[in-house]
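Cont'd.
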Amino acid sequence: MLSLNKIEIALGSFRLRADFQIEARQKVAVVGPSGAGKSTLVGAVCGFIDVLGGQLILAGQDITDAMPDKRDMAMLFQDNNLFPHLTIAQNVGLGIRPVMRLTLDEKSKVNDALVRVGLGDLGSRKPSELSGGQQSRAALARALVQSKLWMILDEPFAALGPALRAEMLDLVAEVADETQAGVMMVTHAPEDARRIADSVIFVVDGVAHGPQATTELLDNPPPALKAYLG
Amino acid sequence: MAERIVQITVGKISPRLGISAAVLIAVLILSALVAVVSRADGDFALGPSDWSAVRFTIWQAFLSAFFSTILAIPVARALARRRFWGRGFLVTLLGAPFILPVIVAVLGLLAIFGRAGFLNDILAFFGFAKVSIYGLHGVVLAHVFFNLPLATRLLLQGWQTVPAEQFRLVAQLGLRPSMVFRLIEWRLIVRILPGAFALVFVICLTSFAVALTLGGGPRATTIELAIYQAFRFDFDLGRAAVLSILQLGVAGSAAGLALWFIPSVSFGGGLDRMQRRWDVRTVWSVVLDSTFIVLALGFLILPLLAILLSGLGGLADVPLAIWGTAWTSFWVAMLSVGALLCAALPMAGWIATSKRAGVEAVGLLGLAASPLMIGTGWFILIHPFANPADWALAVTILVNALMALPFALRILVPTLRETAQTYGRLSGALGLSGVALWRCVLLPRACPQIGFAAGLTAALSIGDLGVIALFADPDRATLPLQMYRLMGSYRTDAAAGAALILLVLAFGLFWVMDYWGRRNVIAE
């Protein structure tokens, strides 16, 4: 379980409050108007933005002040998920162990992950030689080998077309199920939430509201969400 | 047909003025060159002392560039990954040596590293022998004082181009500092350092005031200094001319080579922003960074503090004539700024809209031509018709503007290019062209950069000790020259007082003009 106990996040003059829990292995979407603080919320959960007050508890452990790599989370950003000068295999390999030389055993693990996301023969390429969708797959392969408790996604597929995005979301769901990870995903598209999320966190007016079942919430939205969905 | 031509030029910067300015500058430089060549009649034979000047010039420039850039790596790295109280101040301080008058800095360095300086006091206390600042290591030390901050700023710029996600990724994956160095930092160092090295090397090749004050003698004379000595001590115009050609050959070819390396220098602000880092908490890296930050801070600030303290004490000893000289220096600097803007603005406008990349090279002409070579040339030109000393200030004004030109162009061109691209069509649709285009669109948009370039020119000009040393007679002098004379006659207190006045003038002029530019910036 991931608990946000009376969390308060400050970014300049902007304030965001959150007080809720997410069950382990749940898939939740974070939706809300632009500038409401969706990215701020997941940034704070991952340890990239300081929290002003409150506690962040993951599986019984207080991780409020833990470094980003000590949180059992793998994050996918909007862009720059891969080092442009490393090969795809090297990029994925960094998820296993943060060194440049891997053992044969680890290399085959990397290869398995690449095959799993459909990039089996592209391991030796550089990111710039891949399409946007393939780059996302590579980042997902890294999350696969990282095998963390949570996968945190900050709109990594925003630049992809609808069909490709749906494909990637399904892949996210599969990877999460295989690694028994929970998913927390920022999106501005309600159909993304409907596609893979069990529940939705709605962020508006400086408050992140606790997760509610996706279909129910989107079918009967409260006024603020209704205004956003249009 | 006439209307068609109007349609084409409307909304675009006319290249005519810019080309005229460039031609005028080329004529000024080339006429000096022609005069020098004509004077160096036949006798091109170089003596052993000339060759040793060439060797020393190149060797000291190489060492200065080497130490400035190598030491800049740990300093920039520390500044890029540490947040601490006063960081913004230190980053601002890195910009100070660039506008600090050379002669003032030399006095500050003497107070720390000189015969009766701070360092020797400490050495004496522990029973060590005194070290002397004069000679090769003194020249290199002074050059590192000026250029280490420049190289550090260039590297810091590079650190800022790293996407924020890369540092988050690094944190996420738990990469150690050594891996971060291999993955991210080494790449940007390799990208930026050769250019920084080339820039410092070229700047140091034509350095005069540092060699004049800290060098000298057969083993520490630069070509630039040798020109001055041939001129002032022997009044051997022919030899000065030969040395000038030599200098042009050395500095010109180096500047030509460096053209491909030299990075675009952003002199402006923004460097105090920094990226959040998570990968730098190991004790060893904290100790390492703190050490380099403290050392860099001490190296920069101790000489400045020494000037301030001894200057305040020396103000009472300053001869009355200094104030008159300060006034002369002030208006010389103002006229330099005027001359610079008259040339730089149209040239920048031309370069910004020209499709040919080679045009940008025009701006580097000034970097290749050494002030003393131009000074020698014009002296030869003026000599038959008038007393060159009468023209000392006029030549100084023009040469100072010329020396600031490459930097001014680097500052102005990017803004003008962006403005021309963004608002060119709108201006064209409104029928703006020529003077109206400059007044309504270009000048207001480029205001902060114009203020900055003007401030830089004013500071460089008021602190310059170059051509004026060649031309001046006892009646005519600028403040830096007067200060040099006071130092030469061992009136240290008076020199310190003059240094403080010069320091306040240089920084003050820069600040006022830069502030004017930034105050007029259009709110977006």
